[in-house]
Amino acid sequence: MDRRNKILIVVLCLLLVGTIYFFVDPMKHSVLPKCIVYTLTGYKCPGCGSQRMLHAIMHGDFIGAFKANAFLFCMLPFLAGYCYLEIYHDKHERFYDFFTTGKVVGAILVLVAIWTVVRNLWGM
Ligand SMILES: [Zn+2]
Asked: How far is the CA of 48 from the centre of ligand 1 (A)?
């Protein structure tokens, strides 16, 4: 599969997911998957609230999106930049190499771990 088809598949998947999260409110409908970690343990995982966050962003409710999952909301620009670099890594090799080093990935994992502890201690 060539690069153009991969990008097309990713865009189509994003449109499908975006359509679902625009029309289905995770707070009102139970068709969307529930978090397995939260269901089994009662503790929030780093991704808990991400469906509510996506729904809120789609409706322009950025405060609601922040309240649903503050860490993921703050990481969105980074995620967008990473997706951009993943697509155009041949044009920005230095940035791509930097963002895929073990130090950067390790730092992100540490932040995710801190977020998980903080949100469960303070009920975020
Ligand atoms: Zn979760």
From this structure: 3
